[in-house]
Design brief:
globular; 610 residues; single chain; alpha/beta; 7-stranded antiparallel beta sheet
């Protein structure tokens, strides 16, 4: 997904902007560019391809200015190309614009501008913004007024960064629906779409909210609300450091993040348990009466967060006895929703900036639902617009394939499920304390599960040339399989599907041939024999079968070609361990195939377009 960075101050803008863009590479992109102003001249460099392509050009023809903006583009309108890359400039080469998001009404604006004589060079939606600013500059007193006029014409999502020869000592940054932060320096200031871009320079930041504009000069930052009134904003201090956002000795972010799971899960769980085994969920302020009022729960999310929601449904339904529905966020708006003020909507989003999830949030709010979000990013859009927020404390997740965010989301659901069960009196206080005691042991069990890596490397070697693969399981294990399949396909590019084990025989079993890998997740005692029968069905048809289980391997040795054993925990918590071998298998298969594990093709870390 696109990344934006801006700088104004005493350093060379090129150095700071390029450094910042490198830190955002993990977001996924296909082209990049930079614009600076120096001695009254606006200079532009932008190219299709990796940042190294832009760097090479900058070595030959460097920028000297101390004010600049830069962008990594992930194509939405118009294919990746030099001309479609950002920044975009006006015809007189006096204004440059970078943009994250999508301008939904760009076609009508483009037509209006073309009718007025503007010539478009690119196929992007963004180019309308720069021409619109140019148009209003002709009648405005300054660049800020022109930007305000232009922005008032836009519909859609945008984080914009603008520099202009008319006012070379300022950068203007505007936000609607796309993430934007402003970093505070000493004799220098910054803006970016994401914290790692500027963390090397400052820890003091402002989160820009929707419809706000920042006018950034080297010694000053002024914020305006949507009515153009100057507003005062609270500063935030970032507590995690660059080390947490870099590889720390591991060859890839994904491997580092898999190995960080014991700590991430411990951070998420342990600080929320007091010495008497009570959960302290002080960010969730749903009281006794409100909880009795809740008829049902909707969990809404995308991708891995959706898969975590499937586990959340199972846990909440089984322990708290509340009906739960899980919806894919991009479908939620278009489905028939049975939601009202008696519905609790739980939004799950690592980044807290996923456009589909934000759109679902808007709708749920409009229908009067109480909104609880589970997110990893403090101050993110999802968090700021929720009634209650459960922060997973996974630290920054950089690899595109989510791992520690998923396991901490499961930890969040376990805690929410247990608390709801207590509030609804579905479990006695005694049971409650016992389950919390079991929860406390999970980080240690996650640590022990990391020992499965070696076995997973062997399995990766055996499946690396497969054309397709399958995960099967029942109940919770089926949901773990969904996440296992997503991990394997997104980074190994092996076509992988996950099925409820009993469903295979209704069609999909036709795809099983000699050596097709079938990975069965087997942790649920009550479903054990049934799933074993389904494993036999695929084994009889030549499948290479692997079981991920918490059972004694001697008891099931005959049923599979390979077995990965994870520690035994309370049945309801088994998924948080069973998923770890699935992450390792995906990671090592991808490595063995020589893929770019942290930046898989066609994918972006934070999907801020619908
Ligand atoms: C897959 C993955 C994605 C995200 C999805 C939602 O490994 O990371 O499927 O889970 O794009 O992202 P968030 O959780 O940021 O809303």
């Amino acid at each position: 997904m696109c990344g934006i960075v801006g700088y104004i101050g005493w350093q060379k803008a090129q150095d700071v902007v390029m450094n910042g863009l490198e830190k955002l590479e993990y977001r996924g992109y296909d082209s990049s560019g930079i614009a600076t102003i120096f001695n009254g001249q606006l200079k532009l460099s932008k190219y299709k391809g990796r940042l190294s392509v832009l760097s090479k050009h900058l070595e030959e023809d460097p920028h000297q200015g101390h004010v600049g903006i830069g962008h990594t583009r992930w194509a939405t309108h118009g294919q990746p190309s030099d001309v479609n890359s950002h920044p975009h400039i006006n015809e007189s080469n006096s204004v440059a614009v970078i943009h994250n998001g999508i301008i939904e009404n760009y076609r009508e604006l483009k037509k209006e501008l073309i009718d007025e004589g503007y010539i478009f060079k690119s196929q992007t939606d963004t180019e309308v913004v720069v021409h619109m600013i140019d148009k209003y500059l002709k009648t405005s007193v300054d660049i800020l007024s022109a930007v305000n006029m232009a922005v008032s014409r836009l519909r859609g999502a945008y984080a914009l960064g603008i520099i202009s020869k008319a006012d070379p000592d300022k950068i203007i940054a505007v936000r609607k629906e796309s993430p934007l932060i402003v970093g505070i320096g000493d004799g220098e200031n910054f803006f970016a779409s994401d914290i790692p871009a500027i963390l090397e320079y400052t820890r003091e930041i402002y989160y820009v909210d929707n419809d706000e504009t920042a006018v950034i000069s080297k010694d000053d930052i002024i914020f305006y609300d949507k009515d153009k009134n100057i507003i005062k904003k609270d500063k935030f201090t970032i507590t995690w450091d660059m080390d947490a956002a870099t590889k720390g000795g591991y060859p890839h972010f994904m491997l580092k993040e898999i190995n960080e799971q014991p700590k991430a899960v411990a951070d998420t769980i342990l600080r929320r348990i007091d010495e008497n085994n009570n959960l302290i969920l002080d960010d969730i302020r749903i009281d006794d009466t409100q909880i009795q009022n809740i008829n049902d729960i909707y969990i809404v999310a995308c991708g891995t967060a959706y898969n975590a929601g499937l586990i959340g449904k199972y846990v909440i339904e089984n322990i708290a006895n509340i009906r739960v529905r899980v919806d894919i966020a991009s479908e939620f708006r278009y489905n028939k929703q049975f939601i009202n003020d008696k519905t609790l909507v739980i939004l799950v989003s690592q980044s807290g900036e996923t456009a589909d999830t934000l759109a679902a949030q808007k709708l749920a709010k409009a229908k009067g639902c109480r909104i609880l979000s589970i997110t990893n990013v403090v101050g993110s859009s999802v968090a700021r617009n929720s009634d209650d927020v459960f922060y997973t404390l996974a630290g920054p997740e950089i690899a595109v394939a989510s791992t520690k965010a998923y396991t901490t989301m499961l930890a969040a659901f376990y805690m929410i499920g247990i608390e709801l069960a207590k509030l609804k009196r579905e479990i006695s206080i005694n049971e409650y304390h016992k389950i919390v005691e079991l929860l406390k042991k999970l980080p240690q069990k996650v640590e022990e599960t990391l020992k499965t890596e070696e076995k997973c490397i062997e399995i990766a070697e055996k499946i690396k040339n497969a054309k397709s693969a399958f995960y099967i399981g029942r109940g919770l294990d089926d949901s773990v399989g969904k996440e296992g399949a997503l991990k394997l396909k997104e980074i190994s590019y092996i076509y992988t599907e996950s099925f409820a084990a009993g469903e295979l025989k209704h069609g999909t079993i036709a795809l099983i041939e000699e050596n097709t890998p079938v990975i069965a997740v087997l942790t649920q005692d009550k479903l054990l024999e049934k799933t074993i029968s389904n494993i036999q069905e695929v084994k009889a048809r030549g499948a290479y079968t692997i079981i991920i289980t918490d059972k004694d391997s001697n008891d099931i040795a005959n049923y599979a070609d390979d077995i990965v054993v994870v520690p035994k925990v309370y049945d309801l918590f088994s998924s948080i361990l069973a998923v770890i071998p699935a992450q390792f298998i995906a990671y090592h298969t991808s490595i063995k195939k020589g893929n770019d594990v942290d930046k898989p093709r066609n994918l972006a870390k934070s999907v801020t377009v619908e």
